[in-house]
Amino acid sequence: MEHIINKPIHFFGYLFFILLVLTGLSLRAQTQKDLELNPFPDVEYQMMDGFGASDAWRTQFVGKNWPPVKKNKIADLLFSREEDEKGNPKGIGLSIWRFYLSSGTAEQGDASDIRNPWRRGECFLNVDGTYDWSKHEGQRWFLLAAKDRGVERFLAFSNAAPVHLSNNGKGYATKGDIHMNVKPGCMGDYAEYLIEVIAHFSQDGISFDYLSPVNEPQWNWDGPGQEGTPALNEEIYVFVRYLSHGLAARGLKTEIVIGEAGSIGHVSMPMDLIGMTRDGRDDQARFFFSEASPFYIGNLPNVEKTISVHSYHSVWPLDKQVEYRQMVHKALNVASPELGYWMSEYCILQRNREIRGGGGRDLGMNTALYVARIIHNDLTLCHAKSWQWWTAITQCNFKDGLVYLDDGSQGEAGRMGGHVESLRYDGVVRDSKLLWVLGNYSRFIRPGMVRIKCELSEEQSIENGLLVSAYKDKDTGHVVYVFINLSEQDRYVNVGPGKHVKTYITDKNKNLERSFQSLDNISIPNRSVVTLVNQ
User: Fold this and answer.
1) How far is CA 226 from the centre of its chain?
2) How confident is the model at residue 450 (pLDDT cuts 50, 70, 90)?
Protein backbone atom coordinates (compact mmCIF):
# COMPACT_ATOMS: atom_id res chain seq x y z
CA MET A 1 0.00 0.00 0.00
CA GLU A 2 2.96 2.29 0.57
CA HIS A 3 3.72 2.51 -3.12
CA ILE A 4 0.19 3.78 -3.74
CA ILE A 5 0.04 6.60 -1.23
CA ASN A 6 3.46 7.89 -2.37
CA LYS A 7 1.89 8.89 -5.72
CA PRO A 8 -0.58 11.82 -5.49
CA ILE A 9 -2.90 10.62 -8.24
CA HIS A 10 -3.08 7.20 -6.68
CA PHE A 11 -3.46 8.77 -3.25
CA PHE A 12 -6.62 10.70 -4.26
CA GLY A 13 -7.94 7.61 -6.00
CA TYR A 14 -7.40 5.68 -2.83
CA LEU A 15 -9.26 8.32 -0.78
CA PHE A 16 -12.13 8.14 -3.26
CA PHE A 17 -12.19 4.38 -2.87
CA ILE A 18 -12.30 4.69 0.92
CA LEU A 19 -15.22 7.13 0.67
CA LEU A 20 -17.08 4.71 -1.56
CA VAL A 21 -16.54 1.91 0.94
CA LEU A 22 -17.69 4.06 3.86
CA THR A 23 -20.73 5.20 1.89
CA GLY A 24 -21.54 1.60 1.08
CA LEU A 25 -21.21 0.63 4.72
CA SER A 26 -23.45 3.53 5.68
CA LEU A 27 -26.05 2.47 3.11
CA ARG A 28 -25.75 -1.13 4.31
CA ALA A 29 -26.39 0.02 7.88
CA GLN A 30 -29.52 1.81 6.68
CA THR A 31 -30.80 -1.12 4.62
CA GLN A 32 -30.10 -3.57 7.42
CA LYS A 33 -33.20 -2.17 9.12
CA ASP A 34 -35.25 -2.12 5.94
CA LEU A 35 -38.48 -3.24 7.63
CA GLU A 36 -40.26 -2.57 10.87
CA LEU A 37 -42.39 -5.24 12.52
CA ASN A 38 -45.41 -4.09 14.48
CA PRO A 39 -46.85 -6.75 16.80
CA PHE A 40 -50.27 -6.43 18.41
CA PRO A 41 -50.14 -8.94 21.28
CA ASP A 42 -53.65 -8.09 22.47
CA VAL A 43 -55.22 -8.91 19.09
CA GLU A 44 -55.65 -12.67 19.30
CA TYR A 45 -56.80 -15.16 16.68
CA GLN A 46 -56.90 -18.98 16.88
CA MET A 47 -55.52 -21.10 19.70
CA MET A 48 -53.11 -23.66 18.29
CA ASP A 49 -53.75 -27.40 18.62
CA GLY A 50 -50.39 -28.45 17.21
CA PHE A 51 -48.38 -29.66 14.23
CA GLY A 52 -48.28 -33.26 13.11
CA ALA A 53 -47.73 -35.99 10.55
CA SER A 54 -48.98 -39.53 9.98
CA ASP A 55 -47.42 -42.96 10.30
CA ALA A 56 -49.45 -44.29 7.38
CA TRP A 57 -48.07 -47.43 5.74
CA ARG A 58 -44.34 -46.78 5.96
CA THR A 59 -43.78 -47.26 9.69
CA GLN A 60 -45.24 -50.79 9.60
CA PHE A 61 -41.95 -52.03 8.10
CA VAL A 62 -39.52 -49.48 9.51
CA GLY A 63 -40.77 -49.74 13.10
CA LYS A 64 -40.87 -53.53 12.99
CA ASN A 65 -37.77 -54.50 10.99
CA TRP A 66 -35.20 -51.69 10.77
CA PRO A 67 -32.10 -51.58 13.01
CA PRO A 68 -32.82 -49.83 16.34
CA VAL A 69 -30.19 -47.14 15.79
CA LYS A 70 -31.82 -46.06 12.52
CA LYS A 71 -35.43 -46.07 13.63
CA ASN A 72 -34.41 -44.18 16.77
CA LYS A 73 -32.69 -41.64 14.55
CA ILE A 74 -35.94 -41.19 12.61
CA ALA A 75 -37.93 -40.87 15.83
CA ASP A 76 -35.51 -38.23 17.11
CA LEU A 77 -35.81 -36.24 13.88
CA LEU A 78 -39.60 -36.26 14.09
CA PHE A 79 -40.33 -36.00 17.80
CA SER A 80 -37.33 -34.84 19.82
CA ARG A 81 -37.32 -31.47 21.57
CA GLU A 82 -33.78 -31.91 22.90
CA GLU A 83 -30.80 -29.81 21.81
CA ASP A 84 -27.28 -30.81 20.87
CA GLU A 85 -24.12 -29.46 22.52
CA LYS A 86 -24.36 -26.29 20.40
CA GLY A 87 -27.96 -25.59 21.35
CA ASN A 88 -29.39 -26.69 18.00
CA PRO A 89 -32.56 -28.82 18.01
CA LYS A 90 -32.07 -32.54 17.41
CA GLY A 91 -35.54 -32.84 15.90
CA ILE A 92 -38.65 -30.90 14.98
CA GLY A 93 -40.74 -31.73 18.06
CA LEU A 94 -44.05 -32.66 16.43
CA SER A 95 -46.94 -32.23 18.85
CA ILE A 96 -49.50 -34.45 17.05
CA TRP A 97 -48.90 -38.01 15.82
CA ARG A 98 -51.45 -39.66 13.55
CA PHE A 99 -51.88 -43.45 13.98
CA TYR A 100 -53.46 -45.25 11.01
CA LEU A 101 -56.02 -48.01 11.69
CA SER A 102 -55.87 -50.17 8.57
CA SER A 103 -58.56 -52.36 7.04
CA GLY A 104 -56.82 -55.72 6.98
CA THR A 105 -55.52 -55.72 3.42
CA ALA A 106 -52.12 -56.94 4.66
CA GLU A 107 -53.74 -60.15 5.90
CA GLN A 108 -55.40 -60.55 2.50
CA GLY A 109 -52.06 -60.22 0.73
CA ASP A 110 -52.31 -60.31 -3.06
CA ALA A 111 -56.04 -61.04 -2.77
CA SER A 112 -56.45 -57.47 -1.56
CA ASP A 113 -55.68 -56.35 -5.15
CA ILE A 114 -53.36 -53.69 -3.68
CA ARG A 115 -50.09 -54.52 -5.41
CA ASN A 116 -47.78 -52.34 -3.32
CA PRO A 117 -47.28 -54.03 0.10
CA TRP A 118 -46.31 -50.68 1.59
CA ARG A 119 -49.92 -49.56 1.00
CA ARG A 120 -51.57 -52.52 2.67
CA GLY A 121 -52.22 -52.59 6.39
CA GLU A 122 -53.14 -54.93 9.22
CA CYS A 123 -56.35 -54.83 11.27
CA PHE A 124 -56.68 -55.52 15.00
CA LEU A 125 -60.16 -57.00 14.44
CA ASN A 126 -60.30 -60.59 13.25
CA VAL A 127 -63.06 -62.05 11.09
CA ASP A 128 -64.41 -64.02 14.08
CA GLY A 129 -64.83 -60.84 16.13
CA THR A 130 -61.78 -61.33 18.34
CA TYR A 131 -58.91 -58.86 18.58
CA ASP A 132 -55.21 -59.47 17.99
CA TRP A 133 -53.35 -56.68 19.75
CA SER A 134 -49.98 -57.87 18.42
CA LYS A 135 -50.88 -56.33 15.05
CA HIS A 136 -49.50 -52.94 13.91
CA GLU A 137 -46.17 -53.79 15.55
CA GLY A 138 -44.12 -51.27 13.58
CA GLN A 139 -46.67 -48.51 14.05
CA ARG A 140 -46.90 -49.21 17.76
CA TRP A 141 -43.12 -48.85 18.03
CA PHE A 142 -43.31 -45.31 16.62
CA LEU A 143 -46.36 -44.51 18.76
CA LEU A 144 -44.41 -45.33 21.91
CA ALA A 145 -41.33 -43.54 20.56
CA ALA A 146 -43.45 -40.43 20.08
CA LYS A 147 -44.82 -40.66 23.62
CA ASP A 148 -41.35 -41.21 25.11
CA ARG A 149 -40.08 -38.09 23.33
CA GLY A 150 -42.86 -35.86 24.64
CA VAL A 151 -45.43 -35.67 21.84
CA GLU A 152 -48.50 -34.19 23.52
CA ARG A 153 -51.40 -35.34 21.35
CA PHE A 154 -52.33 -38.51 19.48
CA LEU A 155 -54.90 -39.09 16.76
CA ALA A 156 -56.25 -42.37 15.40
CA PHE A 157 -57.65 -42.32 11.88
CA SER A 158 -59.36 -44.75 9.54
CA ASN A 159 -59.66 -44.72 5.75
CA ALA A 160 -62.06 -47.64 5.36
CA ALA A 161 -63.88 -50.34 7.32
CA PRO A 162 -62.28 -53.70 8.11
CA VAL A 163 -62.53 -55.75 4.94
CA HIS A 164 -64.91 -58.30 6.43
CA LEU A 165 -67.33 -55.47 7.27
CA SER A 166 -67.18 -53.98 3.79
CA ASN A 167 -69.77 -54.50 1.05
CA ASN A 168 -67.33 -55.99 -1.41
CA GLY A 169 -64.83 -57.66 0.92
CA LYS A 170 -62.12 -55.19 -0.14
CA GLY A 171 -60.31 -52.23 1.36
CA TYR A 172 -61.42 -50.10 -1.59
CA ALA A 173 -64.87 -49.32 -2.99
CA THR A 174 -66.86 -50.65 -5.94
CA LYS A 175 -66.86 -48.58 -9.12
CA GLY A 176 -69.88 -46.34 -9.50
CA ASP A 177 -70.89 -46.55 -5.85
CA ILE A 178 -70.34 -43.35 -3.85
CA HIS A 179 -71.81 -44.75 -0.63
CA MET A 180 -69.69 -45.79 2.33
CA ASN A 181 -68.29 -49.26 1.68
CA VAL A 182 -69.91 -50.94 4.69
CA LYS A 183 -72.32 -53.87 4.72
CA PRO A 184 -75.95 -52.99 5.47
CA GLY A 185 -76.49 -53.06 9.20
CA CYS A 186 -72.76 -53.04 10.01
CA MET A 187 -72.20 -49.31 10.55
CA GLY A 188 -72.51 -49.86 14.30
CA ASP A 189 -70.01 -52.73 14.16
CA TYR A 190 -67.50 -50.49 12.37
CA ALA A 191 -67.97 -47.84 15.05
CA GLU A 192 -67.63 -50.39 17.85
CA TYR A 193 -64.33 -51.61 16.37
CA LEU A 194 -62.87 -48.08 16.44
CA ILE A 195 -64.13 -47.51 19.98
CA GLU A 196 -62.64 -50.81 21.16
CA VAL A 197 -59.24 -49.79 19.76
CA ILE A 198 -59.42 -46.43 21.55
CA ALA A 199 -60.37 -48.16 24.81
CA HIS A 200 -57.58 -50.73 24.52
CA PHE A 201 -54.85 -48.15 24.00
CA SER A 202 -56.23 -46.04 26.84
CA GLN A 203 -55.83 -49.01 29.18
CA ASP A 204 -52.36 -49.58 27.74
CA GLY A 205 -51.18 -46.07 28.59
CA ILE A 206 -51.78 -44.27 25.28
CA SER A 207 -54.75 -41.93 25.26
CA PHE A 208 -55.91 -40.90 21.82
CA ASP A 209 -57.00 -37.29 22.05
CA TYR A 210 -58.73 -37.45 18.67
CA LEU A 211 -60.45 -39.93 16.38
CA SER A 212 -60.82 -39.15 12.68
CA PRO A 213 -63.23 -41.76 11.26
CA VAL A 214 -63.44 -40.73 7.58
CA ASN A 215 -60.86 -39.69 5.02
CA GLU A 216 -61.48 -37.70 1.84
CA PRO A 217 -65.04 -39.05 1.42
CA GLN A 218 -65.46 -36.90 -1.73
CA TRP A 219 -63.18 -39.22 -3.73
CA ASN A 220 -64.62 -42.52 -4.93
CA TRP A 221 -61.67 -44.74 -3.90
CA ASP A 222 -62.83 -47.33 -6.42
CA GLY A 223 -59.41 -48.59 -7.50
CA PRO A 224 -56.89 -50.87 -5.76
CA GLY A 225 -54.24 -48.21 -5.22
CA GLN A 226 -54.83 -48.02 -1.47
CA GLU A 227 -57.46 -48.41 1.22
CA GLY A 228 -60.31 -45.92 1.11
CA THR A 229 -64.05 -45.39 0.84
CA PRO A 230 -66.38 -42.61 -0.31
CA ALA A 231 -69.16 -41.49 2.01
CA LEU A 232 -72.16 -39.22 1.77
CA ASN A 233 -72.56 -36.51 4.40
CA GLU A 234 -75.68 -38.23 5.72
CA GLU A 235 -73.75 -41.48 6.18
CA ILE A 236 -71.00 -39.65 8.05
CA TYR A 237 -73.69 -38.12 10.27
CA VAL A 238 -75.03 -41.59 11.18
CA PHE A 239 -71.50 -42.92 11.74
CA VAL A 240 -70.59 -40.00 14.02
CA ARG A 241 -73.70 -40.58 16.12
CA TYR A 242 -72.69 -44.22 16.67
CA LEU A 243 -69.17 -43.14 17.62
CA SER A 244 -70.28 -40.27 19.83
CA HIS A 245 -72.65 -42.28 21.97
CA GLY A 246 -70.29 -45.26 22.09
CA LEU A 247 -67.32 -43.22 23.30
CA ALA A 248 -69.46 -41.44 25.88
CA ALA A 249 -70.94 -44.72 27.14
CA ARG A 250 -67.43 -46.10 27.69
CA GLY A 251 -66.34 -42.95 29.55
CA LEU A 252 -63.65 -42.21 26.95
CA LYS A 253 -62.46 -38.62 26.47
CA THR A 254 -61.42 -38.98 22.81
CA GLU A 255 -62.88 -36.25 20.60
CA ILE A 256 -64.19 -37.01 17.11
CA VAL A 257 -62.76 -34.74 14.41
CA ILE A 258 -64.57 -35.05 11.13
CA GLY A 259 -64.02 -33.95 7.58
CA GLU A 260 -60.59 -34.79 6.25
CA ALA A 261 -62.18 -33.20 3.17
CA GLY A 262 -60.38 -33.89 -0.10
CA SER A 263 -60.04 -30.17 -0.77
CA ILE A 264 -60.88 -26.90 0.94
CA GLY A 265 -63.65 -26.39 -1.61
CA HIS A 266 -65.67 -29.29 -0.26
CA VAL A 267 -65.97 -27.60 3.10
CA SER A 268 -67.68 -24.39 2.16
CA MET A 269 -66.81 -22.98 -1.26
CA PRO A 270 -69.12 -22.87 -4.29
CA MET A 271 -68.43 -26.05 -6.24
CA ASP A 272 -68.44 -24.32 -9.62
CA LEU A 273 -65.38 -22.30 -8.60
CA ILE A 274 -63.26 -25.43 -8.31
CA GLY A 275 -64.82 -27.38 -11.17
CA MET A 276 -66.78 -29.89 -9.07
CA THR A 277 -70.45 -30.81 -8.84
CA ARG A 278 -72.66 -31.28 -5.81
CA ASP A 279 -73.39 -34.90 -4.94
CA GLY A 280 -74.11 -34.93 -1.21
CA ARG A 281 -70.47 -34.86 -0.14
CA ASP A 282 -69.73 -31.12 -0.01
CA ASP A 283 -70.76 -28.01 1.99
CA GLN A 284 -69.62 -29.87 5.09
CA ALA A 285 -69.15 -26.93 7.44
CA ARG A 286 -72.78 -25.84 7.12
CA PHE A 287 -74.12 -29.41 6.92
CA PHE A 288 -72.52 -30.57 10.18
CA PHE A 289 -71.95 -27.42 12.23
CA SER A 290 -74.68 -24.89 11.41
CA GLU A 291 -77.24 -25.04 14.22
CA ALA A 292 -79.94 -24.59 11.58
CA SER A 293 -78.93 -27.86 9.88
CA PRO A 294 -81.01 -31.00 10.64
CA PHE A 295 -77.67 -32.87 10.66
CA TYR A 296 -76.01 -30.65 13.29
CA ILE A 297 -73.46 -32.61 15.36
CA GLY A 298 -71.98 -29.79 17.43
CA ASN A 299 -74.14 -30.74 20.43
CA LEU A 300 -73.16 -34.43 20.47
CA PRO A 301 -70.81 -35.73 23.19
CA ASN A 302 -67.19 -36.30 22.22
CA VAL A 303 -67.45 -34.22 19.04
CA GLU A 304 -64.78 -31.55 18.52
CA LYS A 305 -66.16 -28.38 16.95
CA THR A 306 -63.51 -28.52 14.27
CA ILE A 307 -63.63 -29.29 10.56
CA SER A 308 -60.53 -31.00 9.15
CA VAL A 309 -59.53 -30.23 5.58
CA HIS A 310 -56.77 -31.13 3.11
CA SER A 311 -55.04 -28.34 1.18
CA TYR A 312 -54.67 -30.35 -2.03
CA HIS A 313 -55.71 -28.80 -5.36
CA SER A 314 -55.92 -25.27 -3.94
CA VAL A 315 -52.39 -23.85 -3.85
CA TRP A 316 -51.64 -22.85 -7.43
CA PRO A 317 -51.64 -20.27 -8.91
CA LEU A 318 -50.62 -18.15 -5.94
CA ASP A 319 -53.40 -15.58 -6.24
CA LYS A 320 -55.94 -18.42 -6.00
CA GLN A 321 -54.10 -19.87 -3.01
CA VAL A 322 -54.83 -16.62 -1.20
CA GLU A 323 -58.31 -16.02 -2.62
CA TYR A 324 -59.61 -19.51 -1.82
CA ARG A 325 -58.43 -19.33 1.78
CA GLN A 326 -60.01 -15.95 2.32
CA MET A 327 -63.29 -17.30 0.97
CA VAL A 328 -63.16 -20.42 3.14
CA HIS A 329 -62.55 -18.45 6.32
CA LYS A 330 -65.52 -16.18 5.64
CA ALA A 331 -67.77 -19.13 4.84
CA LEU A 332 -66.74 -20.99 8.00
CA ASN A 333 -67.68 -17.98 10.09
CA VAL A 334 -71.09 -17.92 8.44
CA ALA A 335 -71.62 -21.63 9.15
CA SER A 336 -70.52 -21.27 12.78
CA PRO A 337 -68.30 -18.58 14.33
CA GLU A 338 -67.12 -21.16 16.89
CA LEU A 339 -65.98 -23.69 14.30
CA GLY A 340 -62.29 -24.52 14.35
CA TYR A 341 -60.27 -25.35 11.22
CA TRP A 342 -57.56 -27.99 10.81
CA MET A 343 -55.33 -28.49 7.78
CA SER A 344 -54.91 -32.19 8.46
CA GLU A 345 -53.11 -33.50 5.38
CA TYR A 346 -50.89 -32.19 2.61
CA CYS A 347 -48.10 -33.24 0.28
CA ILE A 348 -47.16 -31.99 -3.19
CA LEU A 349 -49.61 -32.93 -5.95
CA GLN A 350 -50.43 -29.89 -8.10
CA ARG A 351 -48.15 -28.99 -10.97
CA ASN A 352 -46.67 -25.51 -10.69
CA ARG A 353 -43.83 -23.49 -12.13
CA GLU A 354 -41.81 -23.32 -8.89
CA ILE A 355 -41.18 -27.00 -8.15
CA ARG A 356 -43.15 -28.61 -11.03
CA GLY A 357 -45.15 -31.21 -9.11
CA GLY A 358 -45.06 -34.17 -6.75
CA GLY A 359 -42.85 -36.45 -8.84
CA GLY A 360 -39.19 -36.68 -7.85
CA ARG A 361 -38.08 -36.17 -4.29
CA ASP A 362 -36.47 -32.86 -3.35
CA LEU A 363 -34.47 -32.72 -0.13
CA GLY A 364 -33.61 -29.04 -0.66
CA MET A 365 -35.00 -25.59 0.00
CA ASN A 366 -37.17 -25.13 -3.08
CA THR A 367 -39.86 -27.56 -1.96
CA ALA A 368 -39.40 -26.50 1.67
CA LEU A 369 -40.11 -22.85 0.88
CA TYR A 370 -43.01 -23.76 -1.40
CA VAL A 371 -44.62 -25.61 1.52
CA ALA A 372 -43.68 -22.92 4.06
CA ARG A 373 -45.78 -20.41 2.11
CA ILE A 374 -48.75 -22.80 2.23
CA ILE A 375 -48.33 -23.30 5.98
CA HIS A 376 -48.24 -19.52 6.44
CA ASN A 377 -51.38 -18.94 4.39
CA ASP A 378 -53.30 -21.79 6.01
CA LEU A 379 -52.46 -20.40 9.46
CA THR A 380 -53.04 -16.73 8.72
CA LEU A 381 -55.86 -16.78 6.14
CA CYS A 382 -57.84 -19.88 7.15
CA HIS A 383 -56.89 -19.47 10.83
CA ALA A 384 -55.91 -23.15 10.97
CA LYS A 385 -55.51 -24.40 14.53
CA SER A 386 -53.38 -27.30 13.35
CA TRP A 387 -51.20 -28.10 10.34
CA GLN A 388 -50.36 -31.72 9.57
CA TRP A 389 -48.17 -33.17 6.83
CA TRP A 390 -49.16 -36.41 5.13
CA THR A 391 -46.56 -39.16 5.66
CA ALA A 392 -43.71 -38.60 8.06
CA ILE A 393 -41.58 -41.23 6.32
CA THR A 394 -41.41 -42.16 2.64
CA GLN A 395 -39.47 -44.63 0.52
CA CYS A 396 -40.91 -43.14 -2.69
CA ASN A 397 -39.35 -40.92 -5.31
CA PHE A 398 -42.07 -38.37 -4.60
CA LYS A 399 -42.48 -35.19 -2.56
CA ASP A 400 -44.63 -36.82 0.11
CA GLY A 401 -42.33 -37.28 3.12
CA LEU A 402 -40.38 -35.46 5.79
CA VAL A 403 -37.79 -38.22 6.22
CA TYR A 404 -36.71 -40.15 3.11
CA LEU A 405 -35.48 -43.72 2.78
CA ASP A 406 -33.53 -45.40 -0.01
CA ASP A 407 -31.13 -48.32 -0.30
CA GLY A 408 -28.04 -46.13 -0.63
CA SER A 409 -26.89 -47.96 -3.73
CA GLN A 410 -25.94 -44.77 -5.57
CA GLY A 411 -24.03 -42.76 -2.99
CA GLU A 412 -26.04 -39.59 -2.50
CA ALA A 413 -29.20 -41.43 -3.57
CA GLY A 414 -30.42 -44.97 -4.06
CA ARG A 415 -33.26 -47.12 -5.21
CA MET A 416 -36.71 -46.20 -3.92
CA GLY A 417 -40.23 -47.56 -4.25
CA GLY A 418 -42.41 -50.46 -3.16
CA HIS A 419 -40.54 -52.87 -5.45
CA VAL A 420 -37.29 -52.48 -3.45
CA GLU A 421 -37.83 -55.34 -1.02
CA SER A 422 -34.66 -54.63 1.00
CA LEU A 423 -36.17 -51.33 2.18
CA ARG A 424 -38.58 -53.28 4.36
CA TYR A 425 -35.60 -54.21 6.54
CA ASP A 426 -32.91 -51.55 6.24
CA GLY A 427 -31.64 -48.62 4.21
CA VAL A 428 -30.33 -45.07 4.36
CA VAL A 429 -32.14 -42.36 6.36
CA ARG A 430 -32.12 -38.88 4.80
CA ASP A 431 -33.60 -35.78 6.37
CA SER A 432 -35.03 -33.02 4.20
CA LYS A 433 -35.13 -29.24 4.36
CA LEU A 434 -38.91 -29.61 4.43
CA LEU A 435 -38.57 -31.52 7.71
CA TRP A 436 -36.57 -28.68 9.27
CA VAL A 437 -38.77 -25.91 7.84
CA LEU A 438 -41.83 -27.57 9.37
CA GLY A 439 -39.73 -27.62 12.54
CA ASN A 440 -39.47 -23.83 12.40
CA TYR A 441 -43.16 -24.01 13.33
CA SER A 442 -43.68 -27.31 15.17
CA ARG A 443 -40.66 -27.10 17.48
CA PHE A 444 -41.61 -23.70 18.89
CA ILE A 445 -45.37 -23.17 18.47
CA ARG A 446 -46.82 -25.50 21.07
CA PRO A 447 -50.44 -26.52 21.75
CA GLY A 448 -52.29 -23.78 23.62
CA MET A 449 -50.33 -20.90 22.13
CA VAL A 450 -52.36 -18.21 20.37
CA ARG A 451 -51.67 -16.56 17.05
CA ILE A 452 -51.55 -12.77 17.37
CA LYS A 453 -51.63 -9.94 14.90
CA CYS A 454 -48.38 -8.62 13.46
CA GLU A 455 -47.66 -6.42 10.46
CA LEU A 456 -44.59 -5.46 8.46
CA SER A 457 -44.08 -1.82 7.58
CA GLU A 458 -44.28 -2.59 3.85
CA GLU A 459 -46.63 -4.86 1.95
CA GLN A 460 -44.91 -8.03 0.75
CA SER A 461 -45.23 -10.12 -2.39
CA ILE A 462 -46.70 -13.58 -1.92
CA GLU A 463 -44.35 -14.75 -4.65
CA ASN A 464 -40.97 -13.50 -3.46
CA GLY A 465 -41.49 -11.32 -0.40
CA LEU A 466 -40.98 -11.69 3.34
CA LEU A 467 -43.84 -13.35 5.22
CA VAL A 468 -44.26 -13.38 8.99
CA SER A 469 -46.66 -14.69 11.61
CA ALA A 470 -46.59 -14.47 15.42
CA TYR A 471 -47.70 -16.71 18.30
CA LYS A 472 -48.02 -15.93 22.00
CA ASP A 473 -47.69 -18.13 25.06
CA LYS A 474 -50.53 -16.76 27.17
CA ASP A 475 -48.99 -18.03 30.42
CA THR A 476 -45.57 -16.43 30.00
CA GLY A 477 -46.24 -13.68 27.45
CA HIS A 478 -43.36 -14.98 25.29
CA VAL A 479 -43.84 -14.49 21.57
CA VAL A 480 -42.58 -16.65 18.71
CA TYR A 481 -42.20 -15.15 15.22
CA VAL A 482 -41.74 -17.21 12.06
CA PHE A 483 -40.26 -15.38 9.04
CA ILE A 484 -40.20 -16.81 5.50
CA ASN A 485 -37.83 -15.05 3.12
CA LEU A 486 -38.84 -16.15 -0.38
CA SER A 487 -36.48 -13.72 -2.11
CA GLU A 488 -32.86 -13.99 -3.23
CA GLN A 489 -31.92 -11.02 -0.99
CA ASP A 490 -31.14 -10.94 2.71
CA ARG A 491 -33.70 -8.95 4.67
CA TYR A 492 -33.40 -7.11 7.99
CA VAL A 493 -36.22 -6.39 10.42
CA ASN A 494 -36.52 -4.19 13.48
CA VAL A 495 -38.74 -6.12 15.89
CA GLY A 496 -38.22 -4.02 19.02
CA PRO A 497 -35.71 -2.66 21.54
CA GLY A 498 -32.21 -4.02 21.07
CA LYS A 499 -32.00 -6.96 23.42
CA HIS A 500 -30.45 -10.23 22.25
CA VAL A 501 -32.81 -13.07 21.37
CA LYS A 502 -32.55 -16.59 20.00
CA THR A 503 -33.18 -17.20 16.32
CA TYR A 504 -33.25 -20.55 14.55
CA ILE A 505 -32.35 -20.52 10.86
CA THR A 506 -33.12 -23.09 8.18
CA ASP A 507 -31.58 -22.45 4.77
CA LYS A 508 -29.53 -24.40 2.24
CA ASN A 509 -26.66 -24.69 4.74
CA LYS A 510 -28.41 -24.77 8.13
CA ASN A 511 -31.04 -26.89 9.87
CA LEU A 512 -32.71 -24.92 12.67
CA GLU A 513 -29.28 -23.57 13.59
CA ARG A 514 -29.41 -21.43 16.71
CA SER A 515 -27.92 -17.95 16.79
CA PHE A 516 -28.26 -14.82 18.91
CA GLN A 517 -29.34 -11.57 17.30
CA SER A 518 -30.26 -8.08 18.38
CA LEU A 519 -34.02 -7.62 18.35
CA ASP A 520 -33.72 -4.25 16.60
CA ASN A 521 -31.84 -5.75 13.63
CA ILE A 522 -32.90 -9.32 12.89
CA SER A 523 -31.24 -10.80 9.82
CA ILE A 524 -33.40 -13.05 7.64
CA PRO A 525 -31.06 -14.69 5.09
CA ASN A 526 -32.19 -15.12 1.52
CA ARG A 527 -34.28 -18.22 0.79
CA SER A 528 -34.63 -19.12 4.44
CA VAL A 529 -37.10 -19.64 7.27
CA VAL A 530 -36.21 -18.07 10.61
CA THR A 531 -37.91 -18.55 13.96
CA LEU A 532 -37.39 -15.83 16.55
CA VAL A 533 -38.08 -16.64 20.20
CA ASN A 534 -38.71 -13.44 22.19
CA GLN A 535 -38.63 -14.36 25.87
Assistant:
1) 21
2) very high
